[in-house]
Amino acid sequence: MTKYARLLGITVFISVVLLATGCFNQTSEVPAEQELSSVDEKQSETDAAAEAEPAAEAEPEAAEEVHDDLEDFNAFSTLYAKSSGIQNLYYEFELRVEGVSREYYSAWVSEDHIRLDPFDQKHSIFADKKEKTVQVLDRTTGVLSPADYDEAFFNGMMSPAAFDESLDQDMFEHVHFEGSALVDGLPCDVFEVHSSDLNVTYYLWKDTGLSAKVIAQITGFPEYEYYFRSLKPDGATVEALNPPADTDVSQEMVILPSIKVGQ
């Protein structure tokens, strides 16, 4: 599961999706006494076998597996990691499931601050990640109100930037360079990444390594499309990340507006 999360650039969202769809395998519980008995039996068998057989000669260690697509993996890893240093960013995010829009919002993200404008443009959400505070601006009334800080929500936001950690070869089975494409007017390199029952196609902006589009398909489940439009590194200005100074401030708590389309 961790492998999937890192591969997609998702820490919380993909886990929620898989849990909701029942993708996790559930193992049956075994009584502790039964487990201990089984371990003892296996240990006895191992000891008996060791006494009966002469020590086998040490075999040379197998060479590390080398993927036949190592060149494509290196190209993907290098370009993907290029975006990990981008701490300030503006983008418009859309999630589509089987072609139907499910989430849509505009995001201004810096190292410590986030602003989200949901799809209906009726609210702006201002979050301070360091202080763990949230304010919601009702753009129809001009009133700014506090809300509970939802750490899972903000940490689980989809981002076009990579994590600050390198990709390992054992995270995937195959990586293929599929060519180049224009996405939202940006020149992108296209890579298809396979890992177990998860296939992901990345459209990485050549200049920055940011994901302009990601298509994820888990065997037996709907196709998920992630769009990151209007990408602007350094686009989260101080003015955009803070509520307007002339707003009316309320002390009454409100709930966070939904970023889901139609809710």
Automatic annotation (TrEMBL):
Residues 48-64 have a biased composition (Acidic residues). Residues 32-64 are annotated as: Disordered. Residues 1-20 form the signal peptide. It comes from the Bacteria. Keywords: Signal. This is Outer membrane lipoprotein-sorting protein. It comes from Acidaminobacter hydrogenoformans DSM 2784.
